[in-house]
Structures are given as C-alpha cells and as structure tokens.
Design a protein that fits this description.
- The chain is an all-alpha fold.
- It has one domain.
- Helix 1 runs antiparallel to helix 2.
- The chain is elongated.
- The protein starts with a helix and ends with a helix.
- The model has no long low-confidence stretch (mean pLDDT about 85).
C-alpha cells in the first residue's frame, strides 16, 4: 500500500473542501447565482471532492487486490 500517496490525496482533498467552504462563506447573499464570485468556491470544492474520491478508490482497489 502506498500510504504516502493515499495520505497526500486525503490532505489535498480536505484542503480543497475547507478552502471551498471558506470561499463560499465570503460570498454575499444578495449576489445572483450567475455571479463569478461562485467560481472559486465551486472549483475548490470540486478539487477537494476529486482528490477524496481518488483516495477512496485507491483504498478500495488495494483492499480488493490479493496480498502478495
């Protein structure tokens, strides 16, 4: 198991999710949903989610494969 790669993916994923939430917290409520202020929050949340998904898929693949 490549724990360093797995740990890096989890750290990057959590960082992206937290950063996305911080960006979203500073968006004023009176902005329309088509505003460009939503873009950094959406990108950071997508970045975090993609890294966490990759970490969980890597972990599941390693659990499924027979140990040599």
């Amino acid at each position: 198991m490549d724990t360093l790669k797995l740990r890096g993916l989890v750290v990057q994923g959590v960082y992206g999710l937290v950063l996305g939430l911080v960006f979203a917290a500073f968006i004023p409520f009176d902005l329309p949903l088509s505003s460009m202020a939503l873009v950094p929050a959406i990108l950071a949340l997508g970045f975090g989610g993609a890294h966490l998904r990759e970490a969980f898929l890597l972990r599941a693949e390693e659990a499924r494969s027979p140990q040599a």
